[in-house]
Design a protein that fits this description.
Number of domains of chain A: 1
Low-confidence stretches of chain A: none
CATH superfamily of chain A: Winged helix-like DNA-binding domain superfamily/Winged helix DNA-binding domain
Radius of gyration of chain A: 18 Å
Strand content of chain A: 5-15%
Distance between the termini of chain A: 37 Å
Helix content of chain A: 40-55%
Oligomer: homodimer
CATH architecture of chain A: Orthogonal Bundle
Largest sheet of chain A: 2 strands, antiparallel
Chain lengths: ~140, ~140
């Protein structure tokens, strides 16, 4: 069970931008984490599309949070990015398993997935960016 | 977030064998689900190694449950098969994320993963094989 790197990078981009408290660039985030700029650009575009980031153009342009960190819920971000299904039977268009409909496993897995998401609901971006070491790390890369 | 097909097939093999209540073969399970015999053989070997299945050789050989379905817990099976880590930072040997140790995301994800597994703990194989339609499906393929 693994989150996609797409979701992982989205969360990291939000954490960096949230901890920075000033405009940051894709190049800075990419260099700070050692992750592909191209991959990050796609993630940032979706975050902007969803209202989590605001992108501004120009010499002093870059990324800022699109809403307060206290309003960015971890469950909502993970649900928006994590589009893969937990098991084959969760996608009726591609499912080939013949016991779908007579198998209680799907029910059990769905409940487990809901418990996972419910737990994430307890966290907001503001909870993730408070650490002083993290703020130093970000400041050193944006200064 | 997706379970590996390895885990999915392990659960399906247990469901089929548990619903059959008689010796079944890898060929029968493979044909019933339309999944690769080779892939299934690896899964069955691990299930046998873990004590969930007993394999017997010979003309009437095949697979039976290694313990009562009431004793086969869904969490235990998923934990045994699902070796992939939820995010890069969960594996300290391969992690490259520089904010590991100062980032609370890992803590949030770990709690969510525990909630997922805790929910699965409520289910045993016996809960998954009771459906009469499932038993008809299995009987038609083993008879």
């Amino acid at each position: 069970m693994r989150l996609t790197s797409y979701t992982d990078f989205a969360l990291r981009a939000l954490i960096f931008t949230g901890a920075a408290r000033e405009t940051v660039t894709i190049a800075t985030i990419s260099a700070a984490y050692g992750i592909s700029k191209e991959h990050l650009r796609k993630v940032v575009n979706q975050l902007a599309h969803l209202g989590y980031l605001i992108t501004t153009q120009g010499r002093h342009g870059g990324l800022t949070l699109g809403k307060p960190a206290e309003k960015i819920n971890l469950r909502a971000v993970v649900e928006a990015f994590e589009t893969s299904q937990l098991a084959e039977c969760f996608d009726k268009d591609t499912n080939t398993c013949p016991i779908d409909g007579m198998c209680k496993l799907k029910h059990a897995l769905r409940n487990a997935q809901q418990s996972f998401l419910k737990e994430l609901e307890n966290y907001h971006l503001s909870d993730l960016v408070k650490n002083p070491q993290l703020q130093v790390f970000v400041r050193q890369r944006t200064g």
